[in-house]
Hints:
By secondary structure, the protein is mainly beta. It has one helix at 22-35; strands at residues 88-98, 105-111, 117-126, 129-140, 146-155, 158-169, 175-183, 188-198, 204-213, 216-227, 233-242, 245-256, 262-271, 274-285, 291-300, 303-314, 320-329, 332-343, 349-358, 361-372, 378-386, 391-392, 397-403, 408-414, 416-425, 436-442, 449-456, 460-468, 473-482, 485-492, 499-506, 511-518. It starts with 21 loop residues before the first helix and ends with a strand.
Amino acid sequence: MEIKQLKFRYVKNFTNLFKITSLFIFLAVFVSLKSQSVSSMVIDNPIGNIQKFNHVDHSVTLPDNFNIKFDIKRLKNLQPEQEARDNTYYYPDTVVVYSVSDNPIRYTYYYSEEGYRQMTILKKLTNEVWVNHSFEMFTYDSVGNPLVVEMKLWQNNSWVNSNKVINTYTTNHNVLTSTSVNWDGTVWVNSEKSTFTYNESGKAVAFLKENWIDTTWINELYDLYTYDDFGNLISGIRQIWESDTWSNDQQYSYTYDANNNMLTGIIQSWEADTWVNAYGETYSYNASNLPVEYTVQLWVDNSWLNYSKYGYTYNEFNFVVSAIGQLWIDNLWVNNERAQFTQNFYGGVQSALVEHWQIDNWMNYSLSTYSHDDFGNTLSATQYFWDGETWVINQDSLLEISYYYNLYSEYFTGYLAEASYVSIITDISGLEKLSFLNFSSFPNPTSGRMTLRINGVDNTKAEIYLYDLTGNKVLDLYNGLLTKGENTISVDVSSLPAGLYIVKLSTGTIHKYLKIIILNN
Length: 521
């Protein structure tokens, strides 16, 4: 499975639209630091939320600080991992991937009662028989942090060791070290190690990567990060190990607006004992704090020159519906690529049409189509390309399988992926794990007023808030005692603009979330 490909910044399902340079990859790593949630329930570190990584992407060799995939959920200050609908979660059971360049591959997943992924078995269809290929096995500590991810390969009719990742954690459940080891046929041999340092807020302030050479750890690179009072990453510096000493390599700096949206980012390289500009980007946002324009500039002959520009449009629910990429040619912005999207109720993409600008016209390039069940789980993902006359299947591409109301995603390379799912009901014993049997709203979609229904198993104090999709709190809905049995709360939302919102119910120990759609003019 190929997962080492970044998703385009801020825009979901944009992998096929734009090519990302190596400098942009470095910038994206640091942006991901800036954009993570500060919730104590979610690990805040450079490699993203790996506490629940088995629910997000089973194939990641964690942690890999330089292959972070971007997902719009990580750029919103929400914690979907804590969401529960009647305490039932939906996870992939099997995924079958069809490829132009390889035999069909089937992934089968196994979970614990708590919903942690315990094993993934990969088989290839060979002579109409599914034959073992590889499997991954996961072990966790008592709070669900992945301790070991181990891979084995099927060789000569038996499973043999291949590689594994061993993680250690701080007392705050941030990754402290992550060590990759390989099997040499007899013993496990160290390969590379990542070590992280954090500040009091749980933000990563240093990252060290080492490689095992001969019988010792040898430095490779070292990153240092600084933040403002709001937890936004404002600078970073990368050093590389050369001739037994640390040498400057690249430097990063960022600015933000009053809503903590990134406004500018600059990358500088170390040349002739001084920092020299290399790459810059600027952003602008709409009233909903969603990016509407993103411009890239390159430093050439001691001045900034335009390179590319991307613009985004959204529907009334703040789902992106189109994006246009332009290049700076002969002092003019010239169309280059365009994407148009349709989404389902939960924001899952149903179709993504990509076009290229050729001879003053938009010409078809690729088309991705998706089908979903009633719970937002992707049932199929298909990739087509335009041959000049019709849509054909003639090459592979990155396919996204999203699930559980479009909250989680996994990625596969092929032209068709088909998925089935298993529902897992979490443990509902004890008030600490479950304070409410049901939490719902009606009508949904709504306009004017809505009613929240909370069915409690005991008396408990609760707070209920309404957030927009940027993570900003827009309304305080309730702060008080909820009694055992059914509680109803009527809320006036007539003053809010149309769009998708999140209702958060919190008791201090547990949190629940609802998505609602407001249809006001």
